[in-house]
Amino acid sequence: MFSNSADFYFLSLGITLLIQLNYIVISLELSTFAARMRRLLLSILFFTAVFSGMAQEATTPDIAASTENNSSRYHGDGIDDVLQYSPLAATIALKLFGVESKSEWGNLLINTTATYANTAIISYMLKHSVNSRRPDGTDNHSFPSAHTAIAFAGATIMTKEYWHVSPWIGVGAYTVAAVTAADRVRRNRHRWIDVATGAAIGIATAELGYYIGGLILPDREQYSLSVSPTGLELVVKL
Asked: 165: pLDDT confidence band, cut at 50, 70 and 90?
């Protein structure tokens, strides 16, 4: 995939620095429109940088990758089928158990829906346009890793919702997402560039999802959605 090992290490370093910069900005809890746009644009930059590298590599025949495809074994999907949804499931579980989140139920529902709709659309379009063959040779939908995109989108949502409770919640969420990505590579379902781009998509679509959610429900004091013994209760203050 890469012409030499230095290319891979420099790309990995760049990805790491961009992730750290993105979440230093998030940790500042800035609430202005400009700050939210800055976070969104930073995530888009992260995605664009990784995808541009992939596009450049895809234009050149890769004999080494073909050899890898012929020799790598199929290991199935395994536990990452469950891990990819764990951060989102944990986010909902914490809220159900009464831990105060950043968003009300209504906002969380819209933010999450917008996030995963964009994650699915972008991942599907890239998988069926790039047509990168998996290392195990099972199909041509290796790029990007949708499992990783889903996991990192959930981790970003969890970090946004519970960073104020404890930064360690975010650390745990991203650890699960990283394990999901590593397991995809270990099982020969993806290459590192696939999971790196998947992580970028997950982060970027979560930022976009929250931006869209903010446009739909801009004032959390005006809307309130709660869970009661009789069902869901929506209160709108006029």
From this structure: very high
